[in-house]
């Protein structure tokens, strides 16, 4: 027995509706497949400090995590890995970077050249991805410079005090020497005058 044309159209409409609903749900799942959370988007640090670029993500399956670094000196990929596997770290960061399964990285002994933008991209197996940025500013340790200047000024003051003391001692010695000389000169002049008086 053949189905009635209106019933066939009704079944086809339900099938198309279910298909459209499945496609919409798949699109929603794919667009919301990865979520990324960055608790601190700007970090200030000083030279030689260890810095944690902290993030957290959630997604379906095991994603690929990639960090890039951008600054005035250029842009480069610094690390890429899948949680639970060996990280592929760039040569410039080989011995001073540590990765974590939640997507965070730690930089050891940062310098001024490490200042810039750190961009993380988390890509799911199905192709959806999310990215975020952390700005790192590394500055020189000012108090060490001031300490150096203070020590240098103290050294200069000590040298100046020593030179002034030496000059004072030399001046005293020269004054005593001149006084003795004058005294001897006076005595010899007096003796000459006395001799002259005696001779007369």
TrEMBL record:
Transmembrane regions listed in the UniProt entry: 146-170
Presence of keyword Cell membrane: yes
Tagged with keyword Membrane: yes
Compartment list: Cell membrane; Cell projection, Axon; Cell projection, Dendrite
Main subcellular location of this protein, as a coarse class: membrane
Topological type in the membrane: Single-pass type I membrane protein
InterPro entries named in the record: CD2/SLAM_rcpt, Ig-like_dom_sf, Ig-like_fold, Ig_sub
GO biological process: filopodium assembly; positive regulation of excitatory synapse assembly
Coiled-coil ranges from the UniProt annotation: none
Keywords, comma-separated and alphabetical: Cell membrane, Cell projection, Developmental protein, Glycoprotein, Membrane, Signal, Transmembrane, Transmembrane helix
UniProt GO cellular component terms: axon; dendrite; plasma membrane
Domain Immunoglobulin: 40-139
Signal peptide: 1-28
Oligomer status and interactors: Can homooligomerize through cis interactions within the same cell membrane.
Role noted for this protein: Cell adhesion-like membrane protein of the central nervous system (CNS) which modulates both the position and complexity of central neurons by altering their membrane morphology and dynamics. Involved in the formation of neuronal dendrites and protrusions including dendritic filopodia. In synaptogenesis, regulates synapse formation by altering dendritic spine morphology and actin distribution. Promotes formation of unstable neuronal spines such as thin and branched types. Regulates neuronal morphogenesis and migration during cortical development in the brain.
The protein, known as: V-set and transmembrane domain-containing protein 5
